[in-house]
Design a protein that fits this description.
mainly alpha
Length: 114
């Protein structure tokens, strides 16, 4: 899975941030947040596909939703702290914090019915 492979690189990026000159550490931390957001996005896309493939299997659906809620919460935290996350200028596509909160509520609602 792409998210798993992406996540393997995050510790190296964290280490690079620690080694960055003091006057550039804030930029390095922001770049790390972008990398974390990308990993969360990749994992969420994987969950989305698995969710649709397993719709008729309530146990599998609940497991996917249990995984998705904390991903969305982490993504929301990153979006709140960095306005660059969730906006893609060329496609004019963006996530608003409200959209992410709605996703969390929807996942919880679906867990009750699964």
């Amino acid at each position: 899975m792409m998210a798993r492979e992406w996540q393997k690189g995050l510790p190296s990026l964290e280490e690079a941030g620690r080694r960055t000159a003091a006057d550039r550490r804030q930029d390095a931390a922001r770049d790390l947040n972008i990398a974390r957001a990308a990993m969360l996005y990749f994992r969420s896309v994987s969950n989305y596909l698995r969710f649709h493939l397993r719709r008729g299997e309530p146990t599998q659906v609940r497991a996917i939703l249990r995984d998705e809620i904390p991903l969305a919460e982490q993504f929301l935290d990153i979006c709140r702290s960095d306005s660059r996350v969730g906006f893609e200028a060329s496609l004019q596509y963006f996530y608003l914090p409200l959209d992410i909160r709605e996703k969390i509520v929807s996942c919880r609602y679906m867990m009750e019915g699964a």
